Amino acid sequence: MKKKLKLKGQLRSYMQWPIMLTALLIAMNIWIYVLDVKIGMVMTFFIAIYVVTVVILYIYNKPLILNELISFATQYGQVQKTLLRELSLPYALLDDQGKLIWKNQAFMTAVGAENARKKSIFGILPDIHREDMPDEEGMKSCHIHYEGKDYRVDLRKINIDSMLDNNELVDTKDYEGYLIAMYLFDETDLNRVIRENKDQQMVSGLIYIDNYDEALESIEEVRQSLLGALIERKINKYVSGVEGIVKKLEKDKYFVIFKYKYLQQMKEQRFDILNEVKTVNIGNEMPITLSIGIGIGGASYTQNYEYARTAIDLALGRGGDQAVLKEGAQISYYGGKSKQVEKTTRVKARVKAQALREIIQTKDRVIIMGHKLSDVDSFGAAVGIYRAAAFLNKKVNIVVNEVTTSLRPMMECFMKAQERPEEIIIKSAQALERADASTVVIVVDTNRPSYTECQELLSRCRTIVVLDHHRRGGEIIDNATLSYIEPYASSACEMVAEILQYFDENLKIKSSEADCLYAGIMIDTDNFMSKTGVRTFEAAAFLKRNGADITRIRKLFRNDMTEYKARAEAVRHAEVYREVFAISVCPGEGLQSPTIVGAQAANELLNIIGIKASFVLTEYNHTIYVSARAIDEINVQIIMERLGGGGHMTIAGAQLENMTVEEAKNVLKSTLDKMQEEGAL
């Protein structure tokens, strides 16, 4: 039997309510019969006419109403489809594999009619990738650039089973697929306005002349004012070229302001003022160098200025002749190719020595630590600070977790000369047990918290002192009470030797302790052949007067045959890359201190004609250690910074994890290629 369409829900109740009122009329008619029979009969006649009329109207109007409803529903669906097709917002439906199922006119206009015929959205919009597809959360957004316009793409997951619950053609019970609704929002004008607004923002900067006093001293007095005027003219010309303003703060310090839109141009030119100012020469023996600090990304002009202050401190702490850009937590470096100029004055060393003495005097215990895998310079500097603290009758400990073969002879020599040697050298766990509120932690030969022997000590103790000769990087010990970082110094031992001279005139250093400090200087300067200055030899002379013996030190650092052969193998298998870089791998099997041997091999490779920088990779404890060395033409420190390391212009290193030696070598080569293309070397 053919089934008919039926009304249901509220519409059906609305159509039937006149019939339902018949029951009320019948009840009234019965009550009237009780009162008067004749009137009740008349009432019955009219009720019968009412019922017949209502039934006829219901039967007559029902198909008309159904037809009107069906017509409306059909037209409503067509209107929806037309509106969706002609919607000004680009809209499309995709399957779960990214294939295009349906799209409206606006979408075809946005991507082009030809492109819209492609089946996959990844082929139509290459900036959209599979990882941009919605996951369990059901909604994802991404930003793309297409045909000169910027779009925000919203992708919404639509479950098919909820759409086809009542269909009789397809069984969706076990189907896990879904559809994706994609919307394109044109943000081109919005992004343009944002860029224009950002381009108009003011950028704060500081420019310092690194060696102003030293340069003036090297020329005649009548020319000194001319030199200052020429430098100032260069700076004014450079800043005015970017529509900026220069305000002279001191004789060698300038504050600058310019618009953000010029910053990208300055970055692309790698702040060429750094090289231009070096051309100023009116008889001065040394070229003029600048340090630039720029701060952006702050919530206010005051915060941008604070960022600029931090950036200029980083530039100066890294030796000058470079620009440092600080944008929030991100820091970028430009320049830094020149060798830093040694300061001949010892005023700073004297001031730091007195400040260190005052800090130690206020504490009961001193804990000294260097970097992990402590080397001769790190341990020698720790020994020097130990002597200063012991002179003030303080409890002193040196944290050394692992003693390498190169360090063991020196440590044994030092321990023999001490009264209670077993209480001096401790490990991290013991240091944490002894540290309290009345403890000062002194970090030597590193300024990176992650490189220290026990990083937890830095957060446990409130008073921290940092003594280091490495250039500062993005990661620093920022809660130090006293920070003495001098990149021009040859070694941490040189710095400590100077401090000891001003610490107290009655301070006496034992010969074994002088040996440790002297050996640290020797190792870091490659027997006084690199990175040495006047103050380096003065520090060595001070240690000689206190009993340092070169012959005794040389005997401590003789290599065994296995290490000597390993170093020779590293040199023999060295690869010359791009005609100026020597890259090799040091075999670590059977060596107790493979990283030391790798560093020695890197020094050996510099003796080859034509080699400007050497890199030796050593695998140790599942980590690839890179030792980088140069003489003067290449700054290996900025190369190692790209790999997450750091150091000096001529001596630097990095640690690479979760990769093989061959992979590390490829990473190094790609870094050298990229930096040469950028002109950063």
Protein architecture, described:
The structure is a single chain. This protein is an alpha/beta fold and 681 residues long. Helix content is 45%, strand content 20%. The strands form 4 sheets. The chain has a 6-stranded mixed beta sheet with strand order 7-8-6-9-10-11. The protein has a 6-stranded parallel beta sheet with strand order 14-13-12-15-16-17. A hairpin with a 4-residue loop joins β1 (91-95) and β2. The termini are far apart. Mean pLDDT is 84; it is low at 167-172.
Keywords:
6-stranded parallel beta sheet; 23 strands; elongated; alpha/beta; 45% helix; 681 residues; 6-stranded mixed beta sheet
Describe what is shown at a glance.
With 681 residues, this protein is of the alpha/beta class.
Topology:
Blueprint: H1 10-20, H2 22-35, H3 37-85, E1 91-95, E2 100-103, H4 105-111, H5 113-116, H6 121-124, E3 139-146, E4 149-159, H7 160-163, E5 178-186, H8 188-199, E6 202-209, H9 212-217, H10 221-240, E7 245-250, E8 253-259, H11 263-268, H12 273-276, E9 290-296, H13 301-317, E10 322-327, E11 330-335, H14 347-361, E12 365-369, H15 376-391, E13 395-399, H16 408-416, E14 425-426, H17 428-434, E15 439-444, H18 456-460, E16 463-468, E17 482-485, H19 492-503, H20 511-524, H21 534-545, H22 550-556, H23 561-572, E18 575-577, E19 581-586, H24 594-605, E20 613-620, E21 623-630, H25 636-642, E22 646-647, E23 651-657, H26 661-678
Helix pairs in contact: 1-3, 2-3, 14-19, 15-19, 15-20, 16-20, 19-20, 19-21, 20-21, 20-22, 23-24
